[in-house]
Amino acid sequence: MFRILRINKLIINRLLNRLVAWRIAKIPERNFLYLLSLIVGLLSGLAALLLKNLIHFVAEELTQMISVEGFTYLYLLYPFIGILLTVLFVRYVIRDDIGHGVSKILYSISKKSSKLKPHKTYSSMIASSLTIGFGGSVGSEAPIVLTGASIGSNLARIFKLRYKYITLMVGCGAAGAIAGIFNAPMAGIVFTLEVLMLDLTMAYLIPLLISAVAATVISYFFMGEGVMLHFSQVTPFDISMIWIYILVGIFTGLLGIYFTRGTMFLEKRFAAINNWFVRVVIGAVSLGILIFIFPPLWGEGYESINSVFNNQGADLLNNSMFFQWKDNPYVILLVLAGILIFKVLAMSATTGSGGNGGIFAPTLFTGAIAGYFLVKLLNTFFNLGVPENNFALAGMAGMMAAVMHAPLTGIFLTAEITGGYGLFIPLLITSTVAYVTIMRFEPHSIYTKRLAESGELITHHKDKAILRSMEVKKMIENDFAIISPDATLGDLVKAISKSNRNLFPIVDEEGYLKGMVKLSKVKNLIFEHELYDTVMVKDLMFMPEFYISSKDNMETVAKKFETSNRYNLAVIDDGKYLGFISRAIVFSNYRKTLEYFSNE
């Protein structure tokens, strides 16, 4: 059987190689990129459609047994089942970490040449549908973005594209996923450019546009207007209410700090629990209790957002112990405050215990509740009479700007949800204020903070990306004449006459570097023939003040060149001499790598 599988694999590889050869011979590279971006967009749109329906099916089947007018103990059971099934699937079927989808994409671009494992084209979809369908308080966007990016990465690798085009297809998959979920092509493009930090050039923009539009067409074809969020603007923007939008921006900016730091802190606490089953139990029980008290924490929360959009915020008390007080504005405010505080714990309990999902939907949910809460508070105590749903929409934009450091994504996504740009100015104001507020305290988004702390974030710094892609071992030069410590000045002069270098490493029989001799330091002795047999090399050598290891990254090498002002640095591993790296070689390789990274 294994022989048959091996033969089939060889046949498939031959067919793929022939297909690649035909593509290279017959289709211009740019045209092929447009075609491939279309395919990636269609597949990403179908994946988004499949995941939405899968989550909806599971959730609908479960919530049919839940009464609107009372609370149910099933809220305590369902999250445990979903998280346990997810953990078992990941541990024993996938056997790989598939959490934090967007961070995984950024890491793959930074450290893995944009290569994503093939199983990520489906594994995160299955895992997140189990988690979210059973009430996990996370979103499906990060898993589907990871799915789309993986589709793009693997298709690009099948057709043997270069790194920069594999990265482009990763972006096309991400753009298609966001566009397909929200019927929002511009939001998909902007998200990819802003969060994944792909370059804004025509070479990249056109494929992203093709992919996003293709995914949106798929979504419209199968779902029509049945998107997860829909906002109908009834009350137009009033210039006199700008100050409230500024307040919403400040509030969501500060809330974003709590959201980011709270999530990071709680996930680290869960990660410290060594026993996976204990971790599942603690997380699932915590989540179940929170959903039992605050039912809007169930799942992605889009139904709650739609309730707020329709000025039916009191419906957030349905299925809860607070149902009998749903007409009391003060109780509503207390429940809203509780939801804002405990959403972070519910989300962290879901992901920290092993559930699969992202922070995109929780960010939108928290932003909508935050905007609605703040304005309801002002209306209740100051009787302003302003439309609360408009500010819920602005709160979403502000929260996205704060948590994701993506103000443009927040603006365009919320604008596309409205079906127009009637609230574009207040969205712009709120997003800008929220972004400026959080940047004072948090230089990294929740997506990049983990990578930045471990020194693995280079997607947002092209210079670092180029340096990290260069390898020290490939630039070591070995054409330096090696001298023994027991050699004489005469031996050194012979080596000088045959060498084109002005540095001479002194290395013992075991390969350990004992020192170096510079030609400039001994040139006056070259003509002193009477000293050839009496002066020893070990009396002329010196140990280099600056040197590097073959294990150092190129950032370290570049800093050593800058601080030492040397043109050559010795490469020494555990005292053993390997060769030299020259400033000229580093600069030449940097230029070649920059050309490789270039998009045009």
TrEMBL record:
Q: What Pfam families is this protein classified in?
A: CBS, Voltage_CLC
Alphabetical list of InterPro entries matching this protein: CBS_dom, CBS_dom_sf, Cl-channel_core, ClC, ClC-type_chloride_channel
Q: Write down the membrane topology.
A: Multi-pass membrane protein
Is Aminoacyl-tRNA synthetase tagged as a keyword? Answer: no
Which Gene Ontology molecular-function terms are recorded?
Answer: chloride channel activity
Q: Which SMART domains match?
A: CBS
Q: Which residues form the CBS domain?
A: 475-534
Cellular component per GO, a single term: chloride channel complex
Q: Where are the transmembrane segments?
A: 32-51, 71-94, 165-182, 202-222, 242-260, 276-298, 330-347, 359-379, 391-415, 421-441
Q: Which UniProt keywords apply?
A: CBS domain, Chloride, Chloride channel, Ion channel, Ion transport, Membrane, Transmembrane, Transmembrane helix, Transport
Q: Which domain of life is it from?
A: Bacteria
Q: Where in the cell is it found?
A: Membrane
Query: What protein is this chain from?
Result: Chloride channel protein
